[in-house]
Design goal:
This protein has helices at about 20-30, 35-50, 55-70, 95-105, 105-120, 135, 150-165, 170-190, 210-220, and strands at about 5-10, 30-35, 75, 80, 85, 125-130, 145-150, 200-205. The protein is of the alpha/beta class and about 220 residues long. A hairpin with a 2-residue loop joins strand 4 and strand 5 (about 85). The structure holds 2'-deoxycytidine-5'-monophosphate.
């Protein structure tokens, strides 16, 4: 392996604190962060705008391929771009989370987005977060983490996050429903289901602070544990 700096793969279910943790780890190590869920969210958003149903595997696959070919999906610093539009906020709604979960179940879509993710990570010095980084995208990642927490803890965190963002039509109960539904969708799908990769360190964040989780993963990346 010719990478001088490691690839850190962080997978886990919705609401485990992955985004915050992955950003913290990247900052601490001076690594680039790649939020792969954002890529699926952009496809869901682009599909909605193009009038393509999230169940339409064939047209979604073509759309994802076209978006990649045209380099329409880009990360610019912390912003997520769809062509020349900053869609960072538009992709963060619960609806686009559900859309991303649905479009990501189609193998045509996953295949179209695979190279984009591999290109983003291949040189190392990168933290990738998602659902199948350690299992499919980079099974040879030097550091693999499966980050999880109980559904109740995850729903609570998601809810607080949405409320803090000014989202008014959410309730804790509906957020918990959402978390459970997405878990079932993400772990039950036939292609690249969410599961702990071989060799991945299991980190349960239910009773750990963000800082504790970040420190633990950063230590793994530095080979300290
Ligand atoms: O992490 P997130 O909530 O932004 O991800 C949205 C959806 O995208 C998630 O429900 C499943 C899908 N996803 C995936 O299938 N593979 C990834 N590597 C990342 C996300």
């Amino acid at each position: 392996m010719s990478r001088t700096r490691p690839i850190v793969a962080i997978d886990g279910p919705a609401g485990a604190g992955k985004s915050t943790v992955a950003r913290g780890v990247a900052d601490r190590l001076g690594f680039v962060l790649v939020d792969t869920g954002a890529i699926y969210r952009v496809v869901a958003l682009a599909a909605e705008r193009a009038g393509i149903a999230w169940s339409d595997a064939k047209n979604l696959g073509d759309l994802a391929q076209k978006l990649v070919q045209n380099t329409s999906i880009r990360f610019e610093g912390t912003r997520v771009m769809l062509a020349n539009e900053d869609v960072s906020i538009a992709i963060r709604t619960p609806q686009m989370g559900m859309g991303a979960s649905q479009v990501s179940a189609h193998p045509e879509v996953r295949a179209a987005l695979l190279d984009l993710q591999r290109q983003a990570g291949k040189d190392g010095g990168v933290v990738l977060e998602g659902r199948d980084i350690g299992t499919v995208v980079f099974p040879d990642a030097e550091v693999k983490v499966f980050l999880t927490a109980s559904p109740e803890v995850r729903a609570h965190r998601r809810y607080e996050e949405l409320v803090a963002k000014g989202n008014k039509d959410v309730s804790l109960a509906s957020t918990l429903e959402d978390v459970k539904k997405r878990d079932a969708q993400d772990t039950g799908r036939a292609h690249a289901p969410l599961r702990r990769a071989e060799g991945a360190t299991l980190v349960d964040s239910s009773s750990l602070t963000i800082d504790e989780v970040v420190a633990k993963i950063a230590a793994l990346a530095k080979g300290e544990t």
